[in-house]
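tool_call predict_complex ligand=S-adenosylmethionine
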Amino acid sequence: KMLKEGTEEEYAKAVVSYLALGVDRLADFGSVLCVLNVTGGRGVVHTFGRQALPMAWDYIESNPFNPVAAGWPTACEKNEKWIQHASQTAYTPAIVTQSSATSLPYGDNYFDAVITDPPYYINVPYADLSDFFYVWLKRTIGDLYPELFATPLTPKSEEIVQMQHWDPIRYKEKDKLWFEAMITKAFKECYRVLKPESIACIVFAHKSTEAWETIINALLNSGLYLTASWPVHTEMKARLRASESAA
Ligand SMILES: C[S@@+](CC[C@H](N)C(=O)[O-])C[C@H]1O[C@@H](n2cnc3c(N)ncnc32)[C@H](O)[C@@H]1O
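tool_result ok
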């Protein structure tokens, strides 16, 4: 309809993409894994209160037309807020590309800085969890981004997570050694694309020494060297999974 009315194609694509994110938000607040928020507040805990899809005994059904909290109007308002925020942080449009961190589509000595938040070792099965949203996005905007939605579910084989213990059948090769080898490969790519004497900033959250050992080994074997480290509090205290958690 927008195109018929003469809207520029890229603009229409952006609008539809943001609306699709709104549909994702509704799905997040509208699944059978949404439980009552026992602390009060906004009533319903969204599906991803934890970075997991846990069993739930019962669920709370929220009204998608509710003008506050979990409804469509809020989804649209949030979108508007994010767009306004993002448009204030940079005057140069960002170029977003999708590739594995182990083979970046850039030449040597290309970037002044690399800032990365690599996967947290064993903690989060990102790709499996992303399928929850992927199946909706594939239906709503899959035709606009055919290259990003070519597969029925998210691609999993190159995802760098120590997944063997989650599912030893599907992920039998993804053990500690595999994780370390792949993270090393990714850090080597950071080193390759960085200009000499420039900086890589790596965020990592984990409570186990084993995970830190893996990351530091990968760093030391990548060509990068450590100049400083900072403990940073990055997460909201009130999160459902904040208790005794590092990430
Ligand atoms: C700690 S999370 C980053 C979260 C992000 N900073 C945010 O706030 O949403 C690590 C991310 O690395 C991604 N990842 C895993 N393997 C990857 C690979 N081979 N190439 C690129 N990204 C990968 C995971 O899918 C996950 O989204």
